[in-house]
Structure of UPF0597 protein CA839_03925:
Amino acid sequence: MAAEGCTEPIALSYAAAKARRILGTVPNKVDVFLSGNIIKNVKSVTIPNSEGMVGIEPAIAMGMIAGDDEKELMVISDVTHEQVEEVKKFLDKNIIQTHVYPGDIKLYIRLEISNGEDNVLLEIKHTHTNITRILKNGKILLSQICNDGDFNSSLTDRKVLTVKFIYDLAKIIDIDLIKPIFEKVITYNSAIAEEGLKGKYGVNIGKMILDNIERGIYGNDIRNKAASYASAGSDARMSGCGLPVMTTSGSGNQGMTASLPIIKFAAEKNLTEEELIRGLFVSHLITIHVKTNVGRLSAYCGAICAASGVAAALTFLHGGSYEMVCDAITNILGNLSGVICDGAKASCAMKISSGIYSAFDATMLALHKDVLKSGDGIVGVDIEETIRNVGELAQCGMKGTDETILGIMTK
């Protein structure tokens, strides 16, 4: 799915635009109830097309005043300067009140808005556009049954996904079936990476790596170029660049991480279009497989899920066997599974570059038949057990970490 800006604040803009349309007017009272992970991932992000505004209230106000909910995650892609001025006036009224949702759902958004005698309640659970409940003046307009204890209940069934299934399918799938979606991935994600390398965004990690390649301080090699390209996209996205990206597992950063290093690798190695698309297929599906086990929004850095996809795809494109692909994923998950998510912000780009560097190391080790062994920490007896172990670490072991991070960020 194409999305503009960091996905969590855009989800708030989408919810606000939808609620306002149902209300029929701009509200004069807004209460928003958010899970901790939504707060964490919106607090420090620049909202696209907002002329530099950051955080929860601007994300809601942008959707409320200037959003088009029919565009879903492109909800604020067409905003004028005059509308931004109206957003600022709306924010000056201080009518948006933010509350922490006390439940265990990782992705939860509820807006309660009113104007005079009219009021609307709109609720989103588990995924960024998954509206589960709408009430207007107490009348139920939508009520969707959703298993609150399982975020996968709102997704397509992914039980079929295993590394073996993905590897085998990548070898034989009709390229014409997947070409259209990956052409969009290549076009959209490359554009924002190029913008990140040209402009000044965040801490400029992508641009810094490229500058040091050109100065001869860093080596002029594929590994450095891939890390530069991927992190440049995140530099731009986290700093409010309005260019859309193709997401993976509901995340633009994961979409860019899973795709941009493979795009750069294919260009440097003069691979065919078909080879590139098959590599992207592997990278994205492995990312989805790992992320499905990790869960939607947690203290586990999603870029590491995507970096495992990159390691798998690089190994695949080197002609590596199924066993080597498994070894590459094992190597990166055994190395970087302690990287935390402390919210969406500029440093995401630095974590992406770290993940890409590790993906290349994991790949080269695997191609030389060197792999972390079962019993080395969280490494399981096979790749599927290792991925399940990572999921257990993220969903159970890091729950307290997540709470501590949120506590630090909201002091």
About this structure: The radius of gyration is 21 Å. Strands lie at 2-4, 29-34, 96-100, 108-115, 118-125, 131-136, 139-143, 244-246. The chain is about 55% helix and 10% strand.
